[in-house]
Amino acid sequence: MSRLRAAVMTLGCTAAALTLTMGTAQAAPGDTTTMCGSSLTPSGYVDVQWWNSGGCGSGFNPNTKKIMQLTGYPVGTVVNACGSTWPPAGWTIVSSFYSAGCKYSAVPSLNDNSWQLKRVS
User: Fold this and answer.
1) What is the number of domains present in the chain?
2) How far is the first Cα of the chain from the last one, in angstroms, to the nearest whole number?
3) How deeply is 74 buried, as exposed, middle or buried, from its count of CB atoms within 10 A (0-12, 13-18, 19+)?
4) How many CA atoms does the CB half-sphere of 80 hold within 13 Å?
5) Comparing C-alpha atoms, which of 68, 67, 112, 71 is closest to residue 94?
6) Backbone angles phi, psi at 28, to 5 degrees
7) Assigned domain for 69 exists
8) Domain that holds residue 115
9) pLDDT tens digit sequence for 29-81
10) Is the pTM higher than 0.70?
């Protein structure tokens, strides 16, 4: 009976370790994913596109966003991002501009809504 219990415990611990390892895997720099706009953008990511999707509710406001992982890029890398979230630590705003893909509000505006970001540290 104790051998069976030990085998079950070993299998259970192995399964738990695999689950933890798979659940905490880090995305590679530049990887993108889509999420509802009502969710906070995770640390190390920036918003790169907004649109309406029935999967995230209804209404006139853009409610879906594509986010991109910035963690792991080398110093000197330059990327474009929507101005709807602040740049992660180590990144600075180089310039701002208007992008139709970054309209995160239903209020029409041609004001700058995007940034060019540069990795500085």
Assistant:
1) 1
2) 57
3) exposed
4) 11
5) 112
6) -80, 155
7) yes
8) 28-119
9) 999 999 999 999 999 999 999 999 999 998 888 999 999 999 999 999 999 99
10) yes
